[in-house]
User: What shape does this take?
Amino acid sequence: GIQVEQSPPDLILQEGANSTLRCNFSDSVNNLQWFHQNPWGQLINLFYIPSGTKQNGRLSATTVATERYSLLYISSSQTTDSGVYFCAVGGSQGNLIFGKGTKLSVKP
Amino acid sequence: NAGVTQTPKFQVLKTGQSMTLQCAQDMNHNSMYWYRQDPGMGLRLIYYSASEGTTDKGEVPNGYNVSRLNKREFSLRLESAAPSQTSVYFCASRWWFGFGAQPQHFGDGTRLSIL
Assistant: This one.
Protein backbone atom coordinates (compact mmCIF):
# COMPACT_ATOMS: atom_id res chain seq x y z
CA GLY A 1 0.00 0.00 0.00
CA ILE A 2 0.88 3.65 -0.15
CA GLN A 3 3.36 4.86 2.46
CA VAL A 4 3.20 8.39 3.84
CA GLU A 5 6.19 9.88 5.62
CA GLN A 6 6.18 13.23 7.38
CA SER A 7 9.12 15.28 8.55
CA PRO A 8 10.22 16.51 10.95
CA PRO A 9 8.44 14.45 13.63
CA ASP A 10 8.79 17.27 16.16
CA LEU A 11 9.31 21.00 15.74
CA ILE A 12 9.71 23.72 18.35
CA LEU A 13 9.43 27.35 17.24
CA GLN A 14 9.46 30.77 18.80
CA GLU A 15 6.35 32.81 18.14
CA GLY A 16 6.77 34.73 14.88
CA ALA A 17 9.05 32.19 13.20
CA ASN A 18 8.32 30.48 9.88
CA SER A 19 8.35 26.74 9.23
CA THR A 20 8.03 24.15 6.48
CA LEU A 21 6.55 20.71 7.03
CA ARG A 22 7.11 17.98 4.47
CA CYS A 23 5.05 14.99 3.35
CA ASN A 24 6.46 12.31 1.04
CA PHE A 25 4.27 9.59 -0.43
CA SER A 26 5.26 6.41 -2.22
CA ASP A 27 2.79 6.30 -5.14
CA SER A 28 0.70 8.59 -7.29
CA VAL A 29 -2.40 9.92 -5.55
CA ASN A 30 -5.52 11.82 -6.57
CA ASN A 31 -6.30 13.15 -3.11
CA LEU A 32 -4.14 14.84 -0.52
CA GLN A 33 -5.28 16.67 2.57
CA TRP A 34 -3.48 18.53 5.36
CA PHE A 35 -5.04 18.58 8.84
CA HIS A 36 -4.28 20.32 12.10
CA GLN A 37 -5.15 18.33 15.21
CA ASN A 38 -5.63 20.86 17.95
CA PRO A 39 -4.95 20.23 21.67
CA TRP A 40 -8.59 19.17 22.11
CA GLY A 41 -8.11 16.41 19.55
CA GLN A 42 -10.24 17.89 16.78
CA LEU A 43 -9.08 17.38 13.20
CA ILE A 44 -9.26 20.66 11.34
CA ASN A 45 -9.19 20.57 7.54
CA LEU A 46 -6.45 22.91 6.34
CA PHE A 47 -6.09 22.12 2.67
CA TYR A 48 -7.40 19.75 0.08
CA ILE A 49 -4.50 19.87 -2.38
CA PRO A 50 -3.88 16.91 -4.72
CA SER A 51 -1.71 19.21 -6.84
CA GLY A 52 -0.68 22.84 -7.14
CA THR A 53 -0.47 25.59 -4.54
CA LYS A 54 -3.05 27.08 -2.20
CA GLN A 55 -2.92 29.78 0.44
CA ASN A 56 -5.13 30.53 3.40
CA GLY A 57 -3.93 33.42 5.53
CA ARG A 58 -0.59 32.58 7.12
CA LEU A 59 -0.72 29.01 5.83
CA SER A 60 0.05 27.78 2.36
CA ALA A 61 0.58 24.38 0.78
CA THR A 62 2.20 23.04 -2.35
CA THR A 63 1.87 19.55 -3.79
CA VAL A 64 4.19 18.34 -6.56
CA ALA A 65 2.35 15.18 -7.52
CA THR A 66 4.89 14.07 -10.14
CA GLU A 67 7.63 14.09 -7.47
CA ARG A 68 5.37 12.66 -4.75
CA TYR A 69 5.67 15.27 -2.07
CA SER A 70 3.73 18.07 -0.46
CA LEU A 71 4.85 20.99 1.69
CA LEU A 72 2.94 22.96 4.30
CA TYR A 73 4.26 26.45 5.08
CA ILE A 74 3.41 28.27 8.29
CA SER A 75 4.47 31.90 8.44
CA SER A 76 4.60 34.18 11.49
CA SER A 77 3.68 31.30 13.78
CA GLN A 78 1.40 31.84 16.77
CA THR A 79 0.92 29.80 19.93
CA THR A 80 -2.49 28.75 18.60
CA ASP A 81 -0.69 26.96 15.74
CA SER A 82 0.56 24.36 18.24
CA GLY A 83 -0.67 20.82 17.77
CA VAL A 84 -0.07 17.96 15.36
CA TYR A 85 -0.14 18.43 11.60
CA PHE A 86 -1.15 15.43 9.52
CA CYS A 87 -0.77 14.77 5.84
CA ALA A 88 -3.15 12.17 4.38
CA VAL A 89 -3.38 10.78 0.86
CA GLY A 90 -6.15 8.93 -0.95
CA GLY A 91 -6.30 5.14 -0.68
CA SER A 92 -7.91 2.68 -3.07
CA GLN A 93 -11.07 2.39 -0.95
CA GLY A 94 -11.78 6.11 -1.00
CA ASN A 95 -10.24 6.33 2.45
CA LEU A 96 -7.32 8.46 3.59
CA ILE A 97 -3.92 7.05 4.52
CA PHE A 98 -2.31 9.15 7.22
CA GLY A 99 1.28 9.91 8.05
CA LYS A 100 2.38 9.88 11.67
CA GLY A 101 2.25 13.66 11.89
CA THR A 102 4.52 16.55 12.84
CA LYS A 103 4.11 17.79 16.40
CA LEU A 104 4.52 21.57 16.46
CA SER A 105 5.07 23.56 19.63
CA VAL A 106 5.11 27.34 19.35
CA LYS A 107 6.61 29.09 22.38
CA PRO A 108 5.59 32.65 23.34
CA ASN B 1 -24.12 23.26 9.47
CA ALA B 2 -23.39 20.30 11.73
CA GLY B 3 -21.24 18.35 9.21
CA VAL B 4 -20.29 15.03 10.83
CA THR B 5 -21.66 14.41 14.32
CA GLN B 6 -20.35 11.66 16.61
CA THR B 7 -21.86 10.44 19.86
CA PRO B 8 -20.84 9.96 22.57
CA LYS B 9 -17.76 12.19 22.91
CA PHE B 10 -16.34 10.20 25.84
CA GLN B 11 -16.98 6.71 27.17
CA VAL B 12 -15.42 4.40 29.73
CA LEU B 13 -16.16 0.69 29.49
CA LYS B 14 -15.15 -2.42 31.35
CA THR B 15 -13.56 -5.32 29.51
CA GLY B 16 -16.23 -7.48 27.92
CA GLN B 17 -18.92 -4.80 27.74
CA SER B 18 -20.45 -3.83 24.42
CA MET B 19 -21.32 -0.47 22.98
CA THR B 20 -22.19 1.31 19.75
CA LEU B 21 -20.60 4.51 18.51
CA GLN B 22 -22.94 6.64 16.45
CA CYS B 23 -22.09 8.82 13.45
CA ALA B 24 -24.36 10.99 11.32
CA GLN B 25 -23.59 13.37 8.44
CA ASP B 26 -25.83 16.01 6.91
CA MET B 27 -23.83 16.71 3.72
CA ASN B 28 -25.59 14.08 1.58
CA HIS B 29 -22.29 12.22 1.14
CA ASN B 30 -22.44 8.66 -0.18
CA SER B 31 -19.30 7.27 1.53
CA MET B 32 -18.60 7.02 5.24
CA TYR B 33 -15.59 5.79 7.22
CA TRP B 34 -14.53 4.77 10.70
CA TYR B 35 -10.92 5.32 11.82
CA ARG B 36 -9.07 4.84 15.08
CA GLN B 37 -6.17 6.92 16.36
CA ASP B 38 -3.71 5.51 18.86
CA PRO B 39 -1.14 7.63 20.75
CA GLY B 40 1.58 9.04 18.50
CA MET B 41 -0.04 7.63 15.39
CA GLY B 42 -2.02 8.80 12.46
CA LEU B 43 -5.52 7.48 11.84
CA ARG B 44 -6.09 3.92 10.60
CA LEU B 45 -9.16 2.70 8.73
CA ILE B 46 -11.41 0.23 10.57
CA TYR B 47 -14.40 -0.12 8.24
CA TYR B 48 -15.95 1.87 5.47
CA SER B 49 -19.20 2.12 3.54
CA ALA B 50 -18.77 3.21 -0.07
CA SER B 51 -22.51 3.68 -0.46
CA GLU B 52 -25.75 2.99 1.35
CA GLY B 53 -26.20 -0.76 1.75
CA THR B 54 -22.51 -1.70 1.49
CA THR B 55 -19.78 -2.10 4.10
CA ASP B 56 -16.21 -3.36 3.84
CA LYS B 57 -13.24 -4.01 6.08
CA GLY B 58 -10.37 -1.63 6.33
CA GLU B 59 -6.89 -2.06 7.77
CA VAL B 60 -7.84 -2.93 11.39
CA PRO B 61 -11.37 -4.49 11.47
CA ASN B 62 -10.93 -7.20 14.11
CA GLY B 63 -13.23 -6.81 17.09
CA TYR B 64 -15.60 -4.40 15.36
CA ASN B 65 -18.83 -4.50 13.39
CA VAL B 66 -20.58 -1.73 11.48
CA SER B 67 -24.02 -0.87 10.22
CA ARG B 68 -24.90 1.63 7.52
CA LEU B 69 -28.36 2.42 8.82
CA ASN B 70 -29.25 4.81 6.00
CA LYS B 71 -27.44 7.37 3.87
CA ARG B 72 -26.85 9.66 6.86
CA GLU B 73 -25.86 7.22 9.60
CA PHE B 74 -22.98 4.78 10.05
CA SER B 75 -22.49 3.07 13.41
CA LEU B 76 -19.54 1.17 14.86
CA ARG B 77 -20.11 -1.61 17.40
CA LEU B 78 -17.74 -3.22 19.86
CA GLU B 79 -19.32 -6.55 20.84
CA SER B 80 -16.89 -7.44 23.64
CA ALA B 81 -14.58 -4.56 24.43
CA ALA B 82 -10.89 -5.23 25.07
CA PRO B 83 -8.23 -2.89 26.54
CA SER B 84 -6.48 -2.89 23.12
CA GLN B 85 -9.50 -1.04 21.76
CA THR B 86 -8.81 1.96 23.97
CA SER B 87 -8.42 4.69 21.37
CA VAL B 88 -9.93 7.78 19.81
CA TYR B 89 -12.46 6.93 17.11
CA PHE B 90 -13.18 9.24 14.20
CA CYS B 91 -15.99 9.07 11.69
CA ALA B 92 -15.65 10.72 8.28
CA SER B 93 -17.66 11.16 5.09
CA ARG B 94 -17.13 12.25 1.51
CA TRP B 95 -18.41 11.98 -2.02
CA TRP B 96 -16.66 9.07 -3.75
CA PHE B 97 -17.51 7.12 -6.89
CA GLY B 98 -14.34 5.04 -7.23
CA PHE B 99 -12.49 7.74 -9.06
CA GLY B 100 -11.81 11.41 -8.80
CA ALA B 101 -11.21 13.11 -5.52
CA GLN B 102 -13.21 15.01 -2.95
CA PRO B 103 -12.10 15.99 0.54
CA GLN B 104 -13.11 13.94 3.56
CA HIS B 105 -14.87 15.64 6.45
CA PHE B 106 -14.31 14.42 10.01
CA GLY B 107 -16.29 14.40 13.21
CA ASP B 108 -14.80 15.53 16.52
CA GLY B 109 -14.03 12.00 17.68
CA THR B 110 -15.10 9.65 20.47
CA ARG B 111 -12.57 9.05 23.25
CA LEU B 112 -13.02 5.46 24.44
CA SER B 113 -11.26 3.93 27.43
CA ILE B 114 -11.59 0.25 28.27
CA LEU B 115 -10.54 -0.85 31.72
